[in-house]
Structure formats: C-alpha cells, structure tokens
Amino acid sequence: MEETGAAKLKNVLWVVGVFAGVLLIWEGAVKLLRLPPFILPSIESIVLDAVHAPMLFVTNSLYTTSTALAGFLCAAIIGLLLAIAIVSSRVLERVFVTLLALINSVPKVALAPLFVIWLGTGFQPKIAIAALMSLLVIVVDTVGGMRAVDPEMLDLARVHRASKLAILFKVRLPHALPHLFGAWKTAISLSVIGAIVGEYVAGQHGLGYVIVVAQGEFDMARAFAAVVILSVIATILFYAVTYAESRFIRWHVSQRIGRG
What we know:
The chain is an all-alpha fold. It is globular, with a radius of gyration of 22 Å. Helix 8 (164-202) packs parallel to helix 9. It folds into two domains: 1-35; 46-259, MetI-like (MetI-like fold, Orthogonal Bundle). The protein has eleven helices and no strands.
C-alpha cells in the first residue's frame, strides 16, 4: 500500500515533535537547575544569537553542507568501485580490505593535518576527510549485499550464459541496493562529522570554524547555535537519503512493510 498524505504528515510531525521535545527539555533543565551560560546556554539565548547574525550562520552552514555532500559523493563513488573490485577478485579483496582497515584505525583528527599539508587549506582537505570518514561503511555494506545473493540465482544466471558483467549489474548490484542505502544513511552523517573535523584543524569557513572561534571567545551561545544547526543539517540529509531509498527500492520488503 502507498503511504497516504496523512501518514506522511504524521511522520513529519513525529520528527518535529521529537526535536521540539528535546529543546523543551533543554530549556526546562537550564531554568530549573539555573545552569550558568558557560555550561549550558538557554535556547532563548541561542536563538537570539542566531537572529542577530543570520548571514554568519547561513553562509557557514552552506559551506559545511557543501563540504559534507562533496565528501559523501566521493565516498559513494569510490566505495562502490572498491566493493565491486573486492567482490570480483580475492587478491584485490585482501589488498583493499587490509588497507581500509589500517586507514580506518587511524583517528581522522591525526590524519587531518597531513591532508592540509598535501592538499592545502582550501576546500579539498575537508572533502578528503569527509570522504574518508564514510568510506569504510559503504564498502563493507555494499560487499555484504553483493555477496548475500542466493547461490541458486547466480547458478541460474550462469546457466543462461550471463557474463560476469551482466551478473554484476543485473543480479548482484540490485540485490545490494538495500544494503547500499543503509550504508549511505550512516555515511551521510559521518561525512558531516568529517567536514567538521577538517574545519576544526584548518578552517576559515564553516560551522566547525564558527565553533572554534566561539569557544576561544567563551561565546557558548554561538557555539551551541552552530551545534544545533549542525544537528538539523545532519538530520535533513539523513531523511533525504531515506526518502531516496523509499523511491528507488519500493520493491524491497522493508519498504513494503513501511507503507503497509
């Protein structure tokens, strides 16, 4: 069954309601416990700070979002190519899996200065860090999806003399799409984190840079305003991927249950 307009509105209201509930609990805790602003500023002070400098947050939010999306797209393309290589060759599997495990074990904050040295202080190192943060989850989930194909389906394709390329694009990849979208939903959030890490280390723009400057000036209202905006951006991007999933793989059982 297709999801009705009322059901979609209900889902949106749930998201808005949860977010509003968190803000109300936050504001209530500040008022009841009389927390000083340098520990936890009130929602009111955060909103006022954002209202007083709207373009500061708009321009830096666009910068961070662009960085995160560019890193995510790079990771999505590279991750898919690596997954195909790993599934196609045992030798490549040993090489790439080991290499990815080694890279993933290194804290990205430690790698960020190296990217700055190699790529400069512009847009590129932030994109590289954002891509690196989300690459492994895409590779692992995509490989798992392509290898989870029913052996009988693969045998049937081979009986009909399907080439390896045809089996890849007509059997393995369609079967891996649910896993791929699941990885993308995690990766899009990780790419936002990677963009912020890059801005922390060598940024002159972006919400990460706003947070660093605000912390140096003990302007906690501005720092928390940037954090709240970051959470909103990450949530919007997550639900954008979720929406794309519901459009592209309607046939999958998870989507049919969701619409039922």
